[in-house]
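User: Teach me something about this protein's shape.
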Amino acid sequence: MIQLINKQFDPDNCEVLHETRFADEDFREDWRIYGGDWWTEDGWLNGKNMANAPGVIMSKRSFPGNVLIEFEGRTVLPSTHDIDMMWNASWDEQTGQRGAAYVAGIEGWWEGKVGIEKSPGYTLNAATPLFDFDPGRTYRIQAGSIDGHCFVCVDGKLLLELTDHEPIDAQIHTGVGFEAYASFIQIRNLTVRRLSWEPILRSYPDEFR
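Assistant: First, the predicted structure itself:
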């Protein structure tokens, strides 16, 4: 069970919308590359991008509504940073850049932070340096949002949440994807789920009289 502020959900009870093991035969059918080098090998989606800029890959499939993305991710040594993901995402063909999206990252923001930001304006963001990241280690990562209430979990532990009071329209911006930012990363065993949740009422127990 993952508990957010005033909300909780069980990922295992959320409907599976899509699963992929990144087999070579279906890779190009389901994904569109917008930057960096991306390929599959031994069940891993590999993303390598030398530039200090987003190297983006995005799903061709649409996943409208509140979604949860789950996957295993790691950096490929000597790369030490930026396992980045996105949901409620779109690509702006006119500007050649990412459009609306929630973007989360592990060991990013140039200072080794776990963070969440909102594209394309990037004026809504939150980050923390308190996660002890181990380059090359494989992590189980979960990220998503409930009507703009965004979160990132690693190995079953909630690391960060952020409430967007002007949520992205998740019926229009429906992609999920990944980003390598001056990094070499690997992703495998991706599952996209529809987030079903329940409200919780909080109160403190009596601690003193």
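Now, about its shape. The chain has one helix and 20 strands. The chain has one domain: 2-195. If you'd like, I can walk through any region in more detail.
User: That's plenty for now, thanks!
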